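Hey,
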Amino acid sequence: MHSPHHHDDDRPVEARVKLITLAAVALPPIALAGAIWLSWGTAFRTTDLVLLLVGYPLTAMGITIGYHRLYTHRSFEASPAVAWTFGILGSMAVQGPLLWWVTTHRRHHQHSDRVEDPHSPHATRRAGVLGWISSFMHAHVGWLFSRGSLGSTARYAPDVASDPRAQAISRWFPLWVILGFAVPAAIGGLVSGTWTGALLGFLWGGIVRMFLVHHITWSVNSVCHIWGAQTYRSGDHSRNNPAMGILAMGEGWHNNHHAFPASARHGLEWWQFDISWVVIRSLAAVGLVDSIRLPGEQRLRDKRIVQAA
């Protein structure tokens, strides 16, 4: 039985997305093993390390700044160059076309940790250790293959669906994915002057980079709804998790985000490092970003959970 908000017209789109998702989930571990095998017995090339360490934050922030804070929550306004750049970088992370991602994430917020939440570890929680593991894996990656995981864009994201830039970024998603792999492969090949160098660039700067970004991002759905602290009333199980706060480019301050979804800043305390917020604030300083949305002091006080003495 389809989700009540799932349209028949969406079925071919959902099937295509799930096929791509299956490849994106299954192939990276194999590619990681291949990259390690190719590098075995030789020095891990500086080029490969640089491609991985540069590609990871760029595409991760394509998700956190572009897909999430700009397009999904409209937490700031950006110049066309910034909006295009972060939309394309987010697409290179291979987490689905922009419109699909925005639709899914808004559905998550509207039904957080309830039955219609596409990736809650609590909504369908079963008893026992195996039930806990099943719920965790569903929230982490299993939901991508659940029937009806594609929500209705007309219901959840009509504003983004009518945005010509967002439409174009979504429509050209396959191109951005190809570029995300072709660019590091070309750099690896040019620097080494060999086809092996190109292959290693493709693996470390493309596939392995995608693997890391995927699992850190998915950990916000799973880990950050189970482990961590709740500072603010959010009406769900979202948690602030310091490790994910750093690894996920600031997204791990997840309770803060669910309490104040429109905030461009997720690390609301001075010690909650949020690199995505640092980048947004830096772009604002040079006039490329404006109309930044942040919660006021009164709203922060009103939602703060007062701990018993």
